[in-house]
Amino acid sequence: MFSAQGPSLRELCVQALSSVQRGYDLLAPKFDHTPFRTPQSILDATAQALSEFGPVSQGLDVCCGTGAGMQVLRPLCQGRITGVDFSAGMLAQARNAHPDATWVRADARALPFADGFDLAVTFGALGHFLPAERPAVFEGVYRALRPGGLFAFPIGAPPPPTSVALWVTLGFDLAMRVRNALWRPPFVMYYRTSPLPAVLDDLTAAGFTATTVDLTALGRRRDGSPRCRLILARKPADPH
């Protein structure tokens, strides 16, 4: 799972016993050599699906990490592309990799933007927010978008009931809950706290009109359903 350039077991343990922010500051120099980085196949499929919505002017990557989402924004955006994250370490890596972008340190639950972007994306971030925190994130993205702006992000299908993946994710989430009950500060990272219906409900409550499209390039499950969908949440052209 990890390359030779990735973190050691000891480094991962230190990260796991830190806060989310401190943990990612520590992991940042080696993050791109871990399986936690958004897979290239997901970035490519998202970019392909969004190509019909471009070009646009300004783009925003929410919880940008080391900046992988810039691969999606750059071909679509004719103007400024911006990444926002609360980890200074991750932003330092992103700045080195993409010096032409703008980088802002901020908490996604309190985004400091208003009506400035035509397109916002996020990758792999929802598990870092408890369900009660998710509305604040979506409301912040809504404020950051111009009228008519689009918020897009991929979301994977839940593992089949009989799959090993289901029990792995259940076990991980249980271990994380035990860790957070016994250790402070908490490290919020869960795989099964953002089911599609709940995410769509929260987007609607924030003011978006939300639909999904199948990311067919990522394949289908045995029952024919997509392995991954792209959520397209549109801010009304006239939000008033």
Automatic annotation (TrEMBL):
<dbReference type="InterPro" id="IPR041698">
    <property type="entry name" value="Methyltransf_25"/>
</dbReference>
<keyword id="KW-0489">Methyltransferase</keyword>
<feature type="domain" description="Methyltransferase">
    <location>
        <begin position="60"/>
        <end position="149"/>
    </location>
</feature>
<dbReference type="InterPro" id="IPR029063">
    <property type="entry name" value="SAM-dependent_MTases_sf"/>
</dbReference>
<keyword id="KW-0808">Transferase</keyword>
<protein>
    <submittedName>
        <fullName>Class I SAM-dependent methyltransferase</fullName>
        <ecNumber>2.1.-.-</ecNumber>
    </submittedName>
</protein>
<dbReference type="GO" id="GO:0008168">
    <property type="term" value="F:methyltransferase activity"/>
</dbReference>
<dbReference type="Pfam" id="PF13649">
    <property type="entry name" value="Methyltransf_25"/>
</dbReference>
<dbReference type="GO" id="GO:0032259">
    <property type="term" value="P:methylation"/>
</dbReference>
